[in-house]
Amino acid sequence: MVKLGEKPFYKYCPFCASPLVVEERGGRLRPVCKACGFVQYLNPTVGVAVIVLDGDRILLGKRAREPGKGRWCIPCGHVEWGEDVRDAAVREFEEETGLKVELEAVFDVLSNFHNPEHLTVGVWFMGRVVGGKLSAGDDLSDVGFFSVFGPEVELAFPTDEMVIGKLRKLFKKRF
Which fold has domain 45-174? Predict the structure, then answer.
């Protein structure tokens, strides 16, 4: 791979192995294969998170590895190729917390720019626990409930701060 600006790009076509040339496509410079027509686009991956509340407390997980090792986040993960976004949210949540959830409404959708090498679009669902036993797993070393008016922990991701801020506003309107 080579970098075009700050982004990694292929040197050769992943389909026919012909050398790629840089051309403008859609207002941006992109690698293009003259032989088969392939155009390399850099698209963000899709991340999913589930918000579980207990009163005005939110379930958070302590990150066991980078990014954000040692800081807390709303339990989250990535959608696998060919996987439904809702199925991914349920799967990731159970892997990380040991809890089975039923998804409710989408709470928020945000672009994540905190890691310029790996951009994502995050989808935060509201969820209701329907089974399992709370225990940290996968990318988390600890889990617990914290006040949305705190939280008393350092958050790993700026988008989680935005989501919790939105929850705070909703709680303030209710009371």
Answer: Nucleoside Triphosphate Pyrophosphohydrolase (3.90.79)
